[in-house]
Design a protein that fits this description.
This protein starts with a strand and ends in an 18-residue tail after the last strand. The protein has 72 residues and is of the alpha/beta class. It has a three-stranded parallel beta sheet with strand order 1-2-3, covered by helices on one side. The chain is built from one helix and three strands, in the order βαββ.
């Protein structure tokens, strides 16, 4: 069965890495939305894990209100 996780983040890339590794199974993809207010540079290495995709449309998130849906 194919499954996808959407992760909303703004800090702690190592915590995101642990989360991905914990739930990584065959047929699982991870989509990460990073708050537009932060730099993506600390998170880019997560793509090396595989099956990790960054949502291209980044929005400023004022935690977690309806604006989150605008990122999709």
């Amino acid at each position: 069965m194919k499954m996808a996780f959407v992760i909303v983040a703004y800090k702690d890339p190592s915590q995101i890495e642990r989360l991905i590794k914990k739930f990584d199974r065959d047929g699982t993809d991870f989509y990460i939305h990073l708050d537009k207010k932060i730099s993506i540079s600390n998170f880019v290495y997560l793509k090396q894990i595989g099956k990790v995709y960054f949502i291209k449309t980044r929005v400023k998130v004022n935690w977690v209100v309806l604006v989150l849906l605008q990122g999709f």
